[in-house]
Amino acid sequence: MRPRIRRGRHGLDGVKADLSTRVASVNLPNPVMTASGTAGHGTELATHLDLSSLGAVVVKSLHAEPWAGNPAPRIHATPSGMINSVGLQGPGLAAWLEQDLPVLEATKARVVVSIWGRTVDEFAAAASMLATAPSCVVAVEVNASCPNLEDRRALFAHSATATSEVVDAARAARRPLWAKLSPNTPELPEVAAAAAAAGAEAVTVANTVLGMVIDTETRHPVLGAGRGGLSGPAIRPVAVRAVFDTHEAHPDLPIVGVGGISSGDDAVQFLLAGATAVQVGTATFADPAAPARILADLGRWCDHHGVATVTDLVGGAHG
Ligand SMILES: Cc1cc2nc3c(=O)[nH]c(=O)nc-3n(C[C@H](O)[C@H](O)[C@H](O)COP(=O)(O)O)c2cc1C
Fold first, then answer.
1. For 300, which of 57, 68, 152, 267 is 20 to 30 Å away at the CA?
2. Does ligand 1 lie within 6 Å of residue 280's CB atom?
3. Which atom of ligand 1 is nearest to the CA of 74?
4. How confident is the model at residue 153, as a pLDDT?
5. How remote is the CA of residue 319 from the centroid of ligand 1, in Å?
6. Are 112 and 141 in contact (CB under 8 A)?
7. pLDDT category of residue 319 using cuts at 50, 70 and 90
8. Helical axes 160-170 vs 188-197, angle rounded to 10°
9. How many Å separate Cα 281 from the centre of its chain?
10. pLDDT tens for residues 174-206?
11. For residue 152, what pLDDT band results from cuts at 50, 70 and 90?
12. Residue 203 backbone phi and psi in degrees, to 5
């Protein structure tokens, strides 16, 4: 059944608080964005919400070349969340720039393009294809939380050196860079520092938590790829802790917080932990208008708590 469009219910009408924020050099009208991989490559959510009303739309990670992704099943429901191993399926940047971006640009949304690669050179190739993208592409999110082909055991974001190399390669995009990091390393603050030193203006914290579900009847992992990434409310405390640790170690490094946000109150937790903006992912699967609903919730939360400027909340949970 086609979902009813409920834009009116999720507007900011009547909200008095100033919700504008900045992620380093990028000014946003409000702190709520979509999360990469959970809102399609373009305008998939446009029938459910006004994409231009969000802080930004973050598109699914794109490779320089088309990529088929992992075998099915790719997603599976878990307690308070889901596990996925989509495997970064995508049309490749050339096709996306030609077919998806113009439609997205027409919505007047601010666009953050997430890129990935299996090697540093593949990140460089993807980034260079964005150098001449239109100005609606306000930032490039470097998905360092993807497998490093040259180090089979690890994601790039598990290593400060590898993260620094992919961020450096992404400079070819000539856009503000945000490094998307992994919560699956105790060295997150060191990795964040390496990303910043290599040229990332901000870090996005965090990607999914590594996990697995086993089907007891078949006695094999449920997902086609075996392992997957856990997301949704189950990981919210992990992600809030990751943002808190990163802000504590680097109070001047802008952070975009993500992981299990499904209400305005959840978003406030991330702001208090130190994020200047947030992304909404898994919540969108149950409610495609979730980013707009959460934004309206956040505005009402601020008004109810006498918060005139949303950025006054940033880092508020730190001593
Ligand atoms: C189905 C699915 C696909 C995802 N694909 C990507 C991706 O392509 N690139 C990326 O950086 N993160 C990807 N993520 C991770 C999300 O952007 C987000 O960091 C994570 O799911 C935690 O947020 P959430 O709990 O709000 O979903 C994906 C998550 C899901 C559930």
1. 57
2. yes
3. 1
4. 63
5. 31
6. yes
7. confident
8. 30
9. 7
10. 999 999 999 999 999 999 999 999 999 999 999
11. low
12. -120, 145
Contact assessment for residue 308 and residue 285, using Cβ atoms and an 8 Å cutoff:
no
Out of 114, 141, 204, 207, give the residue to mutate to test ligand 1, the one with the largest number of ligand atoms within 8 Å of its CB.
207
> Would the pLDDT of 1 be above 50?
no
Distance of CA 231 to the CA centre of its chain: 12
DSSP element (H, E) containing 178: strand 177-181
223-259 burial string, b = 16+ CB within 10 Å, else e?
A: bebeebbbbbbbbbebbbbbbbbbbeebeebbbbbbb
Is it the case that residue 6 has pLDDT exceeding 60?
Answer: no
Q: Is 88 in the pocket of ligand 1 (CB under 6 A)?
A: yes
Active-site positions read 146
Measured from the CB, is residue 246 less than 6 Å from ligand 1? no
Tens digits of residue pLDDT in 66-95: 999 999 999 999 999 999 999 899 999 999
Q: Does pLDDT of 280 surpass 50? A: yes
Q: What is the dihedral of CA 240, 243, 247, 248, to 10 degrees?
A: 60
State in Å: Cα 45 to ligand 1 middle.
16
For residue 125 the two structure tokens come to 């190739």
Say yes or no: CB of residue 60 within 6 Å of ligand 1.
Answer: yes
| Cβ-based neighbour number of residue 266 at 10 Å | 22
d(CA 162, CA 45): 34
Calculate how far, in angstroms, residue 14's C-alpha sits from the geometric centre of ligand 1: 32
pLDDT tens per residue across span 37-49: 999 999 999 999 9
Q: Is the pLDDT of residue 3 over 70?
A: no
Domain 7-70+88-210+232-313 has CATH 3.40.50.700: no
For the Cβ of 204 lying below 6 angstroms from any atom of ligand 1, the answer is no
Q: Which H/E stretch holds residue 233? A: none
Ligand 1 atom at minimum distance from 206 CA: 19
